Amino acid sequence: QVQLVESGGGLVQPGGSLRLSCEASGTIYSLGAVGWYRRQAPDTERALVARITSGGITNYVDSVKGRFTISRDNAKKMVYLQMNNLKPEDTAVYYCWLGGGFWGQGTQVTVSS
């Protein structure tokens, strides 16, 4: 069984920064592809924000390019999302994803003045 636990969400003013962390644990020997998704309204689908392969190749949704950076620490089984210059439209519940269909419980990010 695999568990993903996110942390680092919160309330921030527009233009501010947050760093999300995701720790993987359980019966997992190494991280494959990992990523961050977000759900911006209760009745909407989770949408890809950023993803990174085991080899370090990244891709981002256009709206966060240049502002968000995904990274990973394979030894610690950690995934990070550095979010800079946050905008109100970034407000969402952010979910960590691990290849194989594993999801964290989500962490709320609210960008508001």
Describe the overall structure:
By secondary structure, the protein is mostly beta strands. Helix content is 0%, strand content 52%. It has strands spanning 2-7, 10-12, 18-26, 34-39, 47-52, 58-60, 68-73, 78-83, 92-98, 102-103, 107-111. Strands 2, 4, 5, 6, 9, 10 and 11 form a 7-stranded mixed β-sheet that branches. Strands 1-3-8-7 form a 4-stranded antiparallel β-sheet, with no helix packed on it. A hairpin with a 4-residue loop joins strand 7 (68-73) and strand 8. The protein is globular. The mean pLDDT is 94.
What is the SS-derived class?
mainly beta
For the secondary structure, the number of strands is: 11
Distance between the termini: 40 Å
SSE pattern, N- to C-terminal: EEEEEEEEEEE
> Would you tell me the overall average pLDDT?
94
User: What is the C-alpha radius of gyration, as a whole number of Å?
Assistant: 13 Å
Q: State the helical fraction.
A: under 10%
Largest sheet: 7 strands, mixed
- Shape descriptor reads globular
Instruction: Please indicate the percent range of residues in DSSP E strands (runs of 2 or more).
Output: over 45%
Q: What low-confidence regions span 5 or more consecutive residues with pLDDT below 50?
A: none
Number of helical regions = 0
Could you write a compact summary of the structure shown?
It contains no helices and 11 strands. The chain is mainly β. A hairpin with a 3-residue loop joins strand 9 and strand 10.
Question: What key phrases describe this protein's structure?
Answer:
113 residues, mainly beta, 7-stranded mixed β-sheet, 4-stranded antiparallel β-sheet
